[in-house]
Amino acid sequence: MRRGAVLLAMLMVVGGLLGLWAFLKQPTEEAAVETPPTQSSYEMLYVRPLSDFHGMTVQLSDGSAFSVVSDMVFDERGSLLGVRSSLAQPLLVVGQEDFALSSISYQMMLLTAQNLPFTAAYEGLDRDACGLNSPAARITITYETGDPIELTIGRLTASGYSCYVALTGDDRVYLVPYDFHQVMTQPLSAHHRLPGALTASADGAVQIAQVTADRTMWLATHTSDQLLPWQVERPFTHGGSSDRITAFIEGVCSIHAEAYEATVQDAAGLAAYGLDAPQRLVVALSDGTIRDIHVGSDAGGGQVYVRMDQTGDVYRISRAQLSFLDTAGEEGLLDRFVALVPSSQVSAVTVTRGDHSCVLTRETRDGEALYTRDGTALSADAFAALYRALVGLSFDKLADRDAPEAEPLAQITFQLLDGTAQRVTFYPWDAYYVFVETGGGGAFLVRRTHLDELLEPFQMEEDEP
Predict the structure, then answer these.
(1) 44-47-52 Cα angle (round to 5)
(2) Which residues are CB-neighbours of 44 under 8 A, at least 6 positions away?
(3) Is there a contact between 48 and 113 (Cβ–Cβ < 8 Å)?
(4) Residue 112 host element (H or E)
(5) Distance CA 49, CA 15 (A)
């Protein structure tokens, strides 16, 4: 039993939530047919103890229906002891016991089970004009003892402050506050809890990850290094862009569900929403909170399907909430790179040192990527390891003058699928650094040891002693 749920339910029992009804008290309104009201004061249509409440069935105008049952435990005196379920909510949806009801929904249902306030009562009204002959909803409330209560919800009044309600066995028509109509005429899906945004600061993030549908992971961890506070661990060790990583964190934490779609039980159910192989956006915070958003397929209407927890609940959010991902790819989140050329854009890479060279190729046949090194087939993992070493070289500082008049130590040429090429050329500088010039006009200094580590996997047979 959850202490928070117990306290909330206790507040309901003692009437703390009755203020929700009280402030909605409205003056007597003109009914569908002008008939003097028999009552003009604020009263309760019925009063029943919550401890006697068993369940409620809601039948909607479209023919759909759902039922809830009480999951609360009371002692012999009617005092609330707690709730049974792990959801820590006082009501359970019959047949969907893992359905997470929103607090507004179950509070309204509990209030309705106890009593129903009205501001006016009329006799002889035209029930058809009040919408009671083709109602928005019919509600049946059952109790452990005594007869059930049957309510019919008609349309809203002209002002919109109230709705018309009838009680089976009573000829009068009652005016009930409008939010009773607003909540109790919704389909079951609208009663689901919607996860909201996290009230978290980017300063509290300790790690972020972005996993693509093909399971490729981009992982960065916060460090104590003031110059490069974000250390990228995958796809290769490097420094991250603090500004864009902060934007990524803020974007992920601000995502909030806009509508509940369904609850699925297995991978086949997830596949229907593109969530069997989703893009995942993960932010881990220092307080132990983890926000793990699974982004699925297009939901239409400018929305996309998402999962926001470890349950099978599927929600919809607007694509506008994901706009921060426009700069959240490797090119945006990684920082201080000599050259970053995504492997998907490359057809061949040539690593040249002196008179010798090593050529990596990537081509697609029948939809399958094939890799080679100097004509010898490579596995995807072997190619990825070599390629990441090439594009993952970070510079140590900006160069303050032009390239030296010297023969290059090495050159890397990226042949792209569009027929163009990008080159990175390394020149001797001093005992500690080499000068790096990129085809895009970048000029940097890189430690010689870093260049040696880069070239080591590309040793040519002629170079070996």
Answers:
(1) 155
(2) 115, 116, 117, 118
(3) yes
(4) helix 103-114
(5) 11
pLDDT at 408: 93
Which of 136, 141, 124, 138 shows the shortest CA–CA distance to 46?
A: 141
Q: For residues 451 and 411, what is the distance between their CA atoms, to the nearest angstrom?
A: 11
Instruction: Give the whole-angstrom CA distance, residue 22 versus residue 45.
Output: 14
Q: How far apart are CA 209 and CA 116, in angstroms?
A: 50
pLDDT in tens, 81-118: 888 877 789 999 999 988 999 999 999 999 999 999 99
Which is nearest to 391 in space by CA: 235, 260, 282, 271?
235
Q: How many CA atoms lie less than 13 Å away from 236 in the CB half-sphere?
A: 20
Mean of pLDDT values over 157-179 = 94
DSSP codes of every residue in 400-451? SSPPPSS--SEEEEEEETTS-EEEEEEEE-SSSEEEEEETTS-EEEEEHHHH
Q: Is 132 left (phi over 0), alpha (psi -120 to 50) or beta?
A: alpha
What's the CA gap between 241 and 332, in Å, rounded? 7
